[in-house]
């Protein structure tokens, strides 16, 4: 495959595979559509901004003709997954089915773009890694793609719905309005601007759970109210000593 000028081989490969997933669409046609939808060069990062709606409009020729498009929705979704790099499933960890819920465990969502990494921004991450976590046990129980967010009217609300069974959310960053929606859903957002391995973030959380968890975390793991007060006082004493 000849790589177009100013385009990485990975970007060119994604576009070629995406075109193959769309019946009757050539690489040249898809390139033209992508150039119309993306401001600036075509890169792995910019391809992550392409939605199912973008492809539908591009293939139909105009927004008015979208209803006449006969390309299957499944093909459009497959093409977007490929453009996003989500087709690289071999690099993703495999969730497990728990026979029991660990005592005192919580559910944790991690915004991710690559493998088992905490490297996603809330509003643009490709998926959420979902873990069941207690002070002594942890397990990846689900991986939730955000592909369908393009069809949502309120994209932040849609993302919150995908993790509404979680108590904690780890992100590289999150905007104010989105954070407010997360908090209203009863989820505690935690920012790690430098990101890192998801397992490292989980291990740090477990260490806090096993020690003196802050009141918000103690509440999630089922610590009695009087114990939460004790933890809060203990934390204050440590600050004074420091």
TrEMBL record:
Residues 7-91 form the Dinitrogenase iron-molybdenum cofactor N-terminal domain. It comes from the Bacteria. It holds the Pfam family Nitro_FeMo-Co. Keywords: Nitrogen fixation. Residues 115-206 form the Dinitrogenase iron-molybdenum cofactor biosynthesis domain. Belongs to the NifX/NifY family. This is Nitrogen fixation protein NifX. It comes from Azotobacter beijerinckii.
